[in-house]
Task: structure prediction
Amino acid sequence: MRIALAQINATVGDIGGNEEKIVARTAEARQAGAALVLFPELAVTGYPPEDLLLKEHFLADARAAVDRIAGHTRDIVAVVGFPERAEDAYNAAAVLADGKVQAIYRKVNLPNYGVFDEVRYFQRGPGGAMIEVDGVQVGLTICEDIWQPGPPLSDEALAGARLILNISASPYVAGKGQMRERMLAQRARDNLVAVAFCALVGGQDELIFDGHSFVVDHDGDVIARSPQFAEDLLVAEVDVQAAGSARLRDTRQRPAARDMRPVVAALGSLRTAAPGGEELVGRPGGPVAPLLDGDAEVYAALVLGTRDYTRKNGFEHVVLGLSGGIDSTLVALIAVDALGAECVTCVTMPSPYTSEGTLTDARTLAHNLGTELLELNIGEPMAAYEGLLADVFAGREPDLTEENLQARIRGNLLMALSNKFGWLVLTTGNKSEMSVGYSTLYGDSAGGFAVIKDCPKLLVYRLVAERARRDPQSPVPESIVTRPPSAELRPDQVDQDSLPPYEVLDAILEGYVEEDLGREQLIARGLPAADVDRVVRLVDLAEYKRRQQPPGIKVTSKAFGRDRRVPITNRYRG
Result:
């Protein structure tokens, strides 16, 4: 059977735009001779629609789009994700053929952990279901249905399915794509069935969908794969007879199979004009895109997330503060790669504490990247603030207050540029700093999108190095990488005056934030007790700051925002 996996970048709420993409890809799949074309989970509405799913008119508009799409399914079967409104709401897959909706499958396993809230919006489906396409038994699943071992996939395989379809919107985490591939390969081997996994691609607020659609045969071998972080139409030949032949040789599933046929719903038998069915029409498989390595994968995710957040929200231009430090350097690199240098403005805002080295590096970087550079000296605004507050602060020594005023002046200038020109402000804080509150509320945290808010400091350095590896003439001055990081808010300041070494800090944060380890567990890992106590306290105290940060891209297993939810008012320590 020749199948097509349409890896599309859907936009939440853009039902008309998503419909156009689905119709266009259906035509391309038909032209390629596919009998079956798959689209991602909730492709009609985009994923996740969140509380849009509580609006009756939104659900009605989605169903109307499905009916219109069905009119374009002559000589091909399309499986399209959408939210179904029946006696309740369901996360569903519409089976479209011969110009109409032939059947609807309802997702069985609803995730309600991490970034998922599907139990809030949907009723679970009754169980597995199959369709027959050109004489081939095909099982239907949606995303989480296949993440859990067992039903509905196992029921469908036992009932005779030789090919399992899985339409998905699986949010990206570093390394998740390869883990997902290994998991579905094991499902295929366990159930002696081929699996076609069709994934969403694109950015949606804090979430990235990495694409990486693929097909595995009944032996668990990847026979076709789409690229990561890009739209694609993957066309592949699946040897559906091979799975059946394997079951003749391996009879372990026969006792269970006797009981499954009444349990799995048969949703209909469909015919297409495509060649094949039981007859193999070409060599099994299709294109197999190479996979990115770890840091290249994360960098690509950040580029896609920045591009989609900017464009999908109607911005044409971004602005960021360029300090000459490693964090703003990475954000500038990502912004230019995502949008083009002509759409990026960098602003350097030197103070009396800014070194000549960082200022020179900022100028050099902006020149090498080809971005516009504005230079706004904040010496006079600092003096004005100090004069205004002199009487109120009389008798008190300068402290963090004066340091934070500098950051807030810079934040005000960036927001003024945003207001005047309609630019999106990109903030430049990393996860390590955000974790412990090493930032200024309404200062360096002010902006519209926090590109690297889920990137620990050591990862920031690796990502800058990754970007340099692909460019023989790296735009990044070496001194940006080798200079000790500093906020430059007071004379001779470096980050390590206020924080443990980043090798220690990031290890503590990984354990405490991402793995929810306690004090004793962290110390048992060899981390210094004094540093553990200090960092845990800072993380807990900074929750109120993090709640007021702009959204940013999730790349780790647990990101601040919708992923990690702890109370602000909280006396538990440990």
The radius of gyration is 27 Å. The CA atoms of residues 409 and 443 lie 7 Å apart.
